[in-house]
Amino acid sequence: MISHVNEYDTPECKTLAETAKKSIRTPASLGLDRCIQCGACTASCPAARFTDYSPRQIVKKVLENDRSVLESEMIWSCFYCYSCNLRCPRNNSPVTIVQVLRQMAINEGIGVEKLAYFLEIGEYLAENGASKIPGPGAKNMERDLGERWISFKKNLESIRDELGLSSKDIRNTHGEVQTILEATGYFEREKWIKAKIQEKLLHQLLENQYIKRENRSGDFGFENDRRYPGQPAFII
Ligand code: SF4
Ligand code: SF4
């Protein structure tokens, strides 16, 4: 098992379905094997409405033990609203399965760069004992929710005053949050994630340089091709 990977979260099993069912995240009542591919999960999924994402297909791939699903961008489209969990007539939970798949992908270094967005939340939590919306997320909210949300954000202090709330919502945790994060191995895991992201970015950089070089040699290849245009004549 890779260091800082929780073997209870993604136990090593023969199939994806077994791993999903044995993960500590998964309730014993999970109806993965009872899935009838009705598509109610996809029909109720907000992410599926705007993208090619399909929780039904994710479940199908898991049942077929198709490990290519770990490489798929699809598993990163879910935002844990749990509508699929609520609507499934067979007590299956595509959202839980997606969580296990993401963890498996991360363990294998696939998609680990997606975690960069969330690291800010962990850092802020450790420092202030409270959660926050990461910078890029706040920008997206400004774009999606518009003026009303921006003015709400600007006037947050006065709104809090009006509601009789303290001006600061950050609690003094007396170091308790840090203690919990330390005891649960969060900081070690954070270090591991950062190193993996660096490794991946470096790999991508080298790959891009290699592709550029390939393209250049491709130009020479084109020159060569021009000396032999078309198929040789067919001689009877
Ligand atoms: S709603 Fe449930 S049974 Fe229907 S396809 Fe989705 S997971 Fe399967
Ligand atoms: S939890 Fe994920 S898969 Fe389920 S409905 Fe919401 S976005 Fe879709």
Commentary on this structure:
Mean pLDDT is 83; it is low at 216-236. It is globular, with a radius of gyration of 24 Å. Helices cover 57% and strands 0% of the residues. It folds into three domains: 16-108, Orthogonal Bundle (Fumarate Reductase Iron-sulfur Protein, Chain B, domain 2); 111-130 and 174-217, no CATH class; 133-169, no CATH class. The chain has helices spanning 16-22, 40-43, 46-50, 55-63, 83-87, 94-107, 116-128, 135-154, 156-162, 176-183, 186-227. By secondary structure, it is mostly helical. Helix 1 (16-22) crosses helix 6 (94-107) and helix 4 packs across helix 6. It is built from eleven helices and no strands. Bound molecules: iron/sulfur cluster (2 copies). One iron/sulfur cluster binds at residues 44-47, 55, 78-84, 94-95.
Instruction: Determine the strand fraction and express it as a percent band.
Output: under 5%
- The string of secondary-structure elements, in order, is HHHHHHHHHHH
The CATH topology of the largest domain is given as Fumarate Reductase Iron-sulfur Protein, Chain B, domain 2
Radius of gyration: 24 Å
Which molecules are bound in this entry? iron/sulfur cluster
Count of domain modules: 3
Distance between the termini: 64 Å
Shape: globular
CATH superfamily of the largest domain: Alpha-helical ferredoxin
Are there runs of 5+ residues with pLDDT below 50, and where?
216-236
CATH top-level class of the largest domain? Mainly Alpha
- CATH architecture assignment name of the largest domain: Orthogonal Bundle
Mean of all residue-level pLDDT scores: 83
Largest sheet: none
InterPro entries: 4Fe4S_Fe-S-bd, 4Fe4S_Fe_S_CS, HdrC_heterodisulfide_reductase, HdrC_iron-sulfur_subunit, Helical_ferredxn
Protein name: CoB--CoM heterodisulfide reductase subunit C
Pfam families: Fer4_8
EC number: 1.8.98.1
